Amino acid sequence: MFRVALWGATGLAGGELLRLIAGHPNMELACAVSRGRAGQPLGGTHPHLRHAYPSCSFVSPEEAREGEADLAFLALPHGASAEEAGRCLARGQKVVDLSADFRLRDPEAHRRWYGAEVPAPELRGRGVYGLPELHREELRGADLVSGVGCNATAAILALLPLARAGVLEEARVECRVGSSEGGAGGDEGSHHPWRSRALRVVTPFAHRHLGEVCQELGLEEERLTLGVTAVELVRGVQCLAHATLSRPMVEGELWRLYRGAYGEEPFVDLCPARPSHQRIPDPRHVLGSNRVRVGFALAEGGRRILAASALDNLMKGAAGTALQGANLALGLPETRGLDMLPVFPA
């Protein structure tokens, strides 16, 4: 049994991690950290978890630093995680960071996409990008696991088979996203009266998760765009990647590429070829789970493809993948505590 400290436990991703830890057979909560709500019961912030943590209250950062834990999840804002990660590592704890502080290996890329200097540069080379479908062996036993961007995860998994095969010439990626991507705080972008029933284009060409997509697919930015549109969802991301192939291909070749990439992956499901309306995945079919659905449709002529994916941004796009990486870092089966089925309808 591993004792786990959760920093940033009042947020949406923090709440998902609390839910996952409560059902994990090899983890127990050492502390849930919140400076602003220290001493308050967890159930007051996360009423759906009241029965799972009936006598547990949030603790202050100072109390958490005096306690013992085997692993720390850092669900803190960008820029705030790195310093705490260093402290946790110094205490001998493994760290899984959900922020962007360790995602980008190139310091200049971090400055560009996040508008800030690289935090904790001495730890930069120590972190492993936390997407098991790409870095499973590096994650085994790792001390520092980086977070993954939810939109980046969706785009990477939609395009990975094409990029690996060297047939991806360029792609114009659009992610349709739910309101929980904005976090637990409210602003003009997430305030319900302004957001509900709207189709709001958040970024038309270069969402900041594009840095991760380029890094992990090994592609130049000139070959990709990543736009984000806010839609009438709470959870969920649907990624539509309109890609041009370097040569004409037939469906059989593409099926071999996608099956070869994901045939053994525990959480990636390929959409069926029939019925045709299910070729492009809907996030409603993965909500509440760590699963991601990937599909494609090939245009006449064989040079244009719509590659698509759908995931729950709070699970496979955040807390679920974080737990998947933590399992690997701790030497546990990768799927432990993540075998829940999607909830439908939702």
UniProtKB/TrEMBL annotation:
Q: Does the keyword Amino-acid biosynthesis apply?
A: yes
List the pathway annotation. Amino-acid biosynthesis; L-arginine biosynthesis; N(2)-acetyl-L-ornithine from L-glutamate: step 3/4
Record-annotated active site: 150
Q: Which Pfam families match?
A: Semialdhyde_dh, Semialdhyde_dhC_1
Which keywords fit this entry according to its UniProt record?
A: Amino-acid biosynthesis, Arginine biosynthesis, Cytoplasm, NADP, Oxidoreductase
Catalytic activity, per the record? N-acetyl-L-glutamate 5-semialdehyde + phosphate + NADP(+) = N-acetyl-L-glutamyl 5-phosphate + NADPH + H(+)
User: Could you confirm whether the keyword NADP appears in this record?
Assistant: yes
Give the coiled coil ranges.
none
Q: Residues in domain Semialdehyde dehydrogenase NAD-binding?
A: 3-142
Query: What domain of life is recorded for the organism?
Result: Bacteria
According to the UniProt entry, its GO molecular function terms are: N-acetyl-gamma-glutamyl-phosphate reductase activity; NAD binding; NADP+ binding
Q: What EC number(s) does the entry state? A: 1.2.1.38
The UniProt entry, under InterPro entries, shows:
AGPR, AGPR_dimerisation_dom, AGPR_type-1, NAD(P)-bd_dom_sf, Semialdehyde_DH_NAD-bd
Q: Where in the cell is it found?
A: Cytoplasm
The top EC class is oxidoreductase
Provide GO CC annotations from the record: cytoplasm
Family annotation (Gene3D superfamilies): Dihydrodipicolinate Reductase, domain 2, NAD(P)-binding Rossmann-like Domain
Q: What does this protein do?
A: Catalyzes the NADPH-dependent reduction of N-acetyl-5-glutamyl phosphate to yield N-acetyl-L-glutamate 5-semialdehyde.
HAMAP family with a match to the protein in the record: ArgC_type1
Protein family membership: Belongs to the NAGSA dehydrogenase family. Type 1 subfamily.
Protein name (record): N-acetyl-gamma-glutamyl-phosphate reductase
Q: Which organism is it from?
A: Aminomonas paucivorans DSM 12260
Q: Which gene encodes it?
A: argC
